[in-house]
Amino acid sequence: MMREELVFGPIHSRRLGSSLGINLLPEKGKLCNFDCIYCECGWNRDGREDKTLPTADRLRETLETKLKECLEAGTPIDSITFSGDGEPTLNPEFPQMIDVTLELRDRYYPKALVSVLSNATRICREEVFQALRKVDNPILKIDAPTSALAALINQPAFEYDVDAVVRCLARFEGDFVLQTMFLRGNGFDSSSPEVLGPWMDIVRKLRPREVMVYTLDRETPMSGLQRFSVSEMTRMVQPLIDEGYRIQIKG
Prior knowledge:
Blueprint: E1 7-13, E2 17-22, H1 56-73, E3 79-82, H2 94-108, E4 113-118, H3 126-134, E5 137-141, H4 147-153, H5 162-169, E6 177-181, E7 184-185, E8 188-189, H6 193-206, E9 210-214, H7 230-242, E10 247-250
Parallel strand pairs: 2-3, 3-4, 4-5, 5-6, 6-9, 9-10
Antiparallel strand pairs: 1-2, 7-8
Helix pairs in contact: 1-2, 2-3
């Protein structure tokens, strides 16, 4: 299972190129309000030994040091990406950390994008929504079109309401990236009519500027999960492609 420091990389990302990662969660543990069956960080129960959250002041110091090192070494950075060991918006200083990152990005790597990978569960909180509006790439997840189906793939630790998340995503007026994992397993199948059709309807309703469709790439905590090929995923989303949606497909 992956465990990341506060600032890590840059690493090569399938979706974002040379990505300098920011982990706003415990460095030796995991903190998430989902327990996704495919999560490369493992199960939530396996990541409870560390509950220490970094502060905005510590991020400023650590990120500035790293950006200086990368600049002096001539290391390219395409994206400064909030990801890490769980859900980044759970850190109570998330809005301040976005401001710190944007300030340092503008100073050291002004051409780099700032991206946030989030499960979108906290976007209905005004301070989180406003912070995400400031970044270049708010990459927000919906894996399943209903709360019942999400229970199979995301296993939320709270009363997750997909419809409520969709309503809050509508506030972005399409200026966000929708991210969706395609897989089979645990009674869930992204290619089934009950999943695929309603999910495409959500895309049509929200009209995101881009859709990222991807599948399994690393070891998963639940065994027996099946990935899709790029050609399979392309066929699945072909109606949206035909309608003019920009869709990035990664195997």
